[in-house]
Amino acid sequence: MKRLLSFLIIFLLAITALLARTYIVSVGIADYPGRQNDLRVSANDAKTIADIFKKNGKAEVESFVNSDVTIQKVCATMRLTFAKATPSDAIILYFSGHGVPGGLVCYDGFLYYSSVLSIMRQSKAQQKMIFVDACFAGKMRYTNKRNTNYSKENVMFFLSSRSTEKSLETPRQTGFKNSLFTVFLERGLRGGADTNKDRVITAKEIYNFVHQGVVEASGNRQHPVMWGKFDGNMPVIKW
After folding, report:
1. Nearest to residue 50, comparing CAs of 97, 96, 88, 103?
2. What's the average model confidence in pLDDT over 38-46?
3. For the chain, is the Cβ count within 10 Å smaller at the N or the C terminus?
4. Average pLDDT of span 183-192
5. What's the rounded Cα separation, in Å, for the pair 116 and 123?
6. Phi, psi of 61 (to 5 degrees)
7. Count of CB atoms situated within 10 Å of the CB of 40
8. The Cα angle at residue 33 between residues 32 and 35, in degrees rounded to 5
9. Which residues, at least 6 apart from 110, have a Cβ–Cβ distance to it below 8 Å?
10. What is the model's pLDDT at position 167?
């Protein structure tokens, strides 16, 4: 009887893992109001990451770019999308664009991590991730409130650069349509980071792959950082 119960538990856990889904909101802004703030590939970055998860077939993806990336629309989309997740699912916010200490620059203003995390806390998902591709991305963990410590949140932050660094857009002559961080993030998610060939890309694997690639390609000028309260073996994507 005990063996039967153990088998049933293992079977149910396996089925749950197979049915687990990822709910992702992927946004990017290349064209900000006023030409002086424009970027070149941020909108393409968001589309690239969205396409990876769409192709994967185990995700529900919401993606929009440029003037559609308003504070209200990003927050509303996250609420609706992340509310669908069960405890065995994962939720992801991917953002490419400008950043400020403690947050992201949407088309119409600043979206602070406090608001993003407030929405994420309402989701039943146990696996929560934020990917940010922006200059001085590491500085976004800091705010003007000394008691703010996002590293204690049950969220994985993967940021494209340290607080003192720019996040580089790839040179036009290379033909790449993405920033340096997202170039290696795409390669890693498509299988390049799967070092043990088990068709599961973990947080540790994606960090090691992207960090090494970006540091080498940038000539040691850009260093992606990952922090937060999460398991290094947490799956980021399964194939």
Report:
1. 96
2. 93
3. N
4. 97
5. 11
6. -120, 130
7. 14
8. 80
9. 71, 100, 103, 104
10. 81
State both tokens at 185: 């993030």
**Cα separation of 163 and 183, whole Å?**
20
Tokens of residue 76, six digits: 């509303």
Tokens describing residue 158? 């993967």
Rounded Cα distance, 28 and 48, in Å: 10
pLDDT digits (tens, 9 = 90+) for 3-27: 655 544 444 444 445 568 999 999 9
Dihedral angle of Cα 208, 213, 218, 224, to the nearest 10 degrees: -30
- Look over the chain and give the mean of its residue pLDDT values, rounded to a whole number: 87
CA atoms within 13 A of residue 223's CA, in its CB half-sphere: 7
Q: Which residues lie across from 110 on neighbouring strands? A: 105
Residues facing 179 on adjacent strands: 169
Provide the total of helices (H) and of strands (E) in the chain, helices listed first. Answer: 6, 11
Cα dist. 226→91, 161, 173, 230 in Å?
17, 9, 30, 10
Measured CA angle at 94 (ends 89, 97), to 5 deg: 170
- Residues 71-121 have pLDDT tens digits of 999 999 999 999 999 999 999 999 999 988 889 999 999 999 999 999 999
pLDDT at 142 over 80: no
